[in-house]
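Long-time lurker. I teach an intro course on protein structure, and each term I like to show students one example going from raw sequence to a predicted 3D structure in token notation. This year I'd like something fresh instead of my usual example. Would anyone be willing to generate the tokens for the chain below so I can use it in lecture? Attribution to the forum is fine with me.
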Amino acid sequence: MKNIIFILILLLSFSCKSQSIISLEQAYVYSKSDDGLPETVTYVKDINNRLDQFVGTWKGSYGGKQYEFRFIKKINFGSYSVKWDELIGRFLVNDSNGNILYSSLNESNDENTHLRGINIQNKTYMLNFSGNVEYCNDRGVVFIEVSQNNPNIMYLSFDRDKGAFDPAKCPNYSTFVPLLPKTKMTLTKQ
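-- Reply from a regular --
Happy to contribute to a lecture. Here you go:
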């Protein structure tokens, strides 16, 4: 009887789909492969607490604009089958006269902040940004990296999506200045 119970337990364990947790670093390696994440992965976890260095309020200026970013870390987050530990960002951009050009600081729904983490690559964390997309395709990937010499300094740059846009809504696409700078800007932790 013990053998039959053991065999049944063994068969059940093989028939159940196993679930696995992997690190952010492992997820990045998988993202570079043709196969992507294995089907068994259910959670991409910040095992090494790499995201903690980015959490907080960061301020800086660039090109006559003032920036304030607020990053929070979400655990086991998302509405897909694979949950992630990721950063959610909210930010404010003011022009040189103090006029608000963009703000997501008051967005209460983390799913709607338009600045959400993708993955970590070495020391750099990548986030998707999609703001003002109906006008001149102001979206792409934001790269943030904390200085190795000073944990209160962070660098941010933006790689604007070169995808499709509506020329009727953006006749000045080639000269349009996105909200976020393409070249590296420096932010200071508050």
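Some talking points for your students: Residues 2-15 form the longest helix (14 residues). The CA atoms of residues 117 and 127 lie 4 Å apart.
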